[in-house]
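Please, structure for the following, as tokens.
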Amino acid sequence: MSQATSATGGGASYAAAGVDIEAGDRAVELMKEWVRKTQRPEVLGGLGGFAGLFDASALKRYERPLLASATDGVGTKVDIARRMGVYDTIGHDLVAMVMDDIVVCGAEPLFMTDYICVGKVHPERVAGIVKGIAEGCVLAGCALVGGETAEHPGLLGPDDFDVAGAGTGVVEADRLLGADRIRTGDVVIAMASSGLHSNGYSLVRHVLFDRAGMALEQQVDELGRTLGEELLEPTKIYSLDCLALTRTTDVHAFSHITGGGLAANLARVVPDHLHATVDRSTWAPGAIFDLVGTAGQVERLELEKTLNMGVGMMAVVPADSVDVALTTLADRNLDAWVAGEITERGDHSTGAALTGDYAS
């Protein structure tokens, strides 16, 4: 929370302009407990400093350490959290969107910072958001070393907020994953998503609320819960699962399935001379994807370039590593399956494509 001193007397003051410093201070006190739970041995100091400190001497064990960084937000999913009055799950989404991008190159997540922008500081609400971020950091194996809470009265309504974050990880240079490792005959393994994750909510909100007239509190039999509960399902955090794969198998690449959909994101890690084919018949997307498609009469290709369709992360591994990879993920209680293969690229093929029809 940015600090300032209010003017006294009858003149203008920070408080009169809508910024409540005392509420910001209380929010910091409430969040300290959760931030402490994320600490790694390399973290120095505590919450409240101007900068988070991370002991870089821990990187001396690397021959050639490469730092990987990423930043992201959670998009218009924050509107669902605001409308439902549930604030702790959105932090899981933020960590997933940042740290699962970092692990794609094989990097171990190290630390993260957050930025929370609100129209009015409600200390318990801000602390709830940070609680979720801290829990997400524990699941990703990284530390939450600092952040900023900014109060923007006049620009945001009293209940409006947004969140963003930035993270850093490290990978040994000769262990860097990516397109240059992929070979013909490699196998594509899909890892199940927990739902919509944090992409495509502008489409989802338009379809379900504006067109279909559905309500967040509406019980949806196909989902087995209310629509709001489904839409707030936290994004799966795959960081430690992916790192476990790098220890047990010769992983060539990962692809985090976010905005743009499965084919577009997988194509980002496929070299120009090769092609990835993913067979839809190897899995059945969850009920929420069918609901969005049916309620909005959204064509399949439009859904697939907007939503993850039930796959949140993909790994590309050699054919002889498939069994070990699937066993590793099963041991970690993560649903995964063989979904496709890498072949030579034809004259008219793209980097990645989906074939067949989804399983029923």
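Residues 179-355 form a domain with the Phosphoribosyl-aminoimidazole Synthetase; Chain A, domain 2 fold (CATH 3.90.650.10). The two ends are 50 Å apart (CA to CA).
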